[in-house]
Amino acid sequence: MSNVRPDLSAARWRKSSYSSGDGGECLEVGDGFAGLVPVRDSKDPARATLTVSAAAWGDFVAYVAR
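-> structure tokens emitted (66 positions)
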């Protein structure tokens, strides 16, 4: 496991389709990082970003889609 954080300054952020449409509970994911999925709170984008493996993100999405 690497402790090196990717440079997210050029990330293309998009709101997750699982976020509510009323402005609350908004999750954004960053595209363009091979094997990684950066995740952030769209209400506070300056806050720390969580970066997970693409496999872990896929497992998470499959779980919440049940």
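The chain is about 15% helix and 30% strand.
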